[in-house]
């Protein structure tokens, strides 16, 4: 019976678990927006580095919001810069989420934050 219970727990356990680290244990450094081209052909680069300040390896999800002049969010995109790999303490993972956004003439600003933290 104990073996059956243990097998059920392992079967139902998620592949990724929430880390003991939190979003506050990560920082985003060097975030820059660069646009090339014009109008609908415009290409964005929304790049920076995700830094792990936690005491253990973990991964974090980056969220970028595109906003209009009044601060209204027009688009939101999220990604895991390190994929399904953990970032070692003190290490960084580069990201560029610009390719995920489509051109909108109303976009005036971008904000970037850490949305979620996990260990893989």
Written account of the structure:
It is a single chain. With 120 residues, the protein is mainly β. 9% of the residues lie in helices and 46% in strands. The chain has one helix and seven strands; from the N terminus they run αβββββββ. The protein has one helix at residues 2-12, and strands at 17-18, 26-36, 43-52, 59-67, 73-79, 92-96, 109-119. The protein has a four-stranded antiparallel sheet with strand order 1-7-4-5, with no helix packed on it. A hairpin with a 6-residue loop joins strand 2 and strand 3. The radius of gyration is 18 Å and the shape is elongated. Residues 8-15 have low confidence and may be disordered.
Question: How many helix segments?
Answer: 1
Fraction of helical residues: under 10%
Cα gyration radius (Å): 18 Å
Major beta sheet, strand line-up: 1-7-4-5
Q: What is the CA–CA distance across the termini?
A: 30 Å
| Average pLDDT over all residues | 88
* Largest sheet properties: 4 strands, antiparallel
How many β-strand stretches? 7
Based on secondary structure, the structural category is mainly beta
Unreliable stretches covering 5 or more consecutive residues: 8-15
Any idea of the CATH topology?
Immunoglobulin-like
Structural shape: elongated
Order of helices and strands: HEEEEEEE
Keywords: Signal
Signal peptide: 1-19
